[in-house]
Amino acid sequence: MALDKNGIAKRIAKEMKDGWYVNLGIGIPTLVANHIPEGISVEFQSENGILGMGPFPFEGEEDADLINAGKQTITALPGATYFDSATSFGMIRGQHVQMTVLGAMEVADNGDIANWKIPGKMVKGMGGAMDLVASAENIIVAMMHTNRAGQSKLLKECTLPITGVQCVKKVVTDLAVLEIDPEGRGFILVERAPGVSVEEIQAATEGRLIVDGEVPEMKL
Mind telling me which residue stretches traverse the membrane in this protein (predicted)? Predict the structure, then answer.
């Protein structure tokens, strides 16, 4: 059974380590803050100038004055700090953020990512994605495996405007966990969603897919 958006976020939360600073992009990545495992402390940063974001607010509990870089309402944990965007981008460009979780429209099997623009459609803005992909060493993409038309979003080459080249390290979708092969051979299938077969993942992946032996199910 394919994961829902919270399932994707929960799997990504398992990648976090105690004491890390983590930047969350808009969309599915914002849900990661709701699923941090017990016993670890993670500081979430947003490029509009906040360190210490909390879980995504429930409906009716939003504070319109408290938003992330994607203009989504957020919560703040006790001790959260606020600062200007220049300081925030200084953290990013200075590589003081240990992990970045981004949404994407497309990811290529060499690690290219397209996540900021569809030609002819209105977008909220480029945000800090291009700084993040240029500066962060550990980039995970949270996305659905296919688009609404059932077409793969994991491609041989991105067709949309590129945000960054050869920067993605791992992709977590509703069907699978995949790593980008450092030798450029394609997507390595690491885990599959509960009840999802390797064949289903292969059929939904346009890019090169490496299947090496038995592929375990995700543990959520």
Answer: none
pLDDT tens per residue across all 220 residues of the chain: 799 999 999 999 999 999 999 999 888 998 999 999 999 999 999 988 999 998 888 888 889 889 888 788 889 999 999 999 899 999 999 999 999 999 999 999 999 999 987 776 666 666 688 889 888 889 999 999 999 999 999 999 999 999 999 999 999 999 999 999 999 999 999 999 999 999 999 999 999 999 999 999 999 8
Per-domain residue ranges of the chain: 5-210
Architecture of domain 5-210: 3-Layer(aba) Sandwich (3.40)
Determine which one of 15, 38, 43, 47 is catalytic: 47
Which residues have CB under 8 Å from 177's CB, separation 6+?
Answer: 11, 170, 171, 189, 190, 191, 192, 218
